[in-house]
């Protein structure tokens, strides 16, 4: 499903799913290469919930071993784009 999504559409989907999991989080000022676990105080369960939400929304299979690639905005967008 990501094959026809633009970078901006992927970013919007990622941010919306992230904020659904961490509604009090703000991505303002968070660098694209910042570890979201530290920047937004996320734990491993939050990251797994994000992986599940992205899978459900985008139809992308994300093996557990790849979850670590989704802990930065840049890493997540690169990973998702690469799955197209």
UniProtKB/TrEMBL annotation:
InterPro entries (alphabetical): ACP-like_sf, PP-bd_ACP
SUPFAM superfamilies the record matches: ACP-like
Transmembrane segments: none
Pfam families the record matches: PP-binding
Domain of life the protein comes from: Bacteria
Domain Carrier residue range list: 5-84
The protein's name: Acyl carrier protein
Organism: Kordiimonas lipolytica
């Amino acid at each position: 499903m990501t094959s026809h999504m633009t970078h901006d559409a992927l970013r919007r989907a990622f941010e919306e799913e992230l904020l659904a999991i961490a509604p009090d989080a703000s991505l303002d000022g968070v660098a694209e290469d910042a570890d979201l676990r530290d920047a937004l105080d996320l734990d491993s369960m939050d990251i797994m919930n994000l992986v599940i939400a992205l899978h459900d929304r985008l139809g992308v299979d994300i093996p557990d071993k790849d979850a670590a690639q989704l802990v930065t905005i840049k890493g997540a967008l690169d990973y998702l784009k690469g799955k197209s």
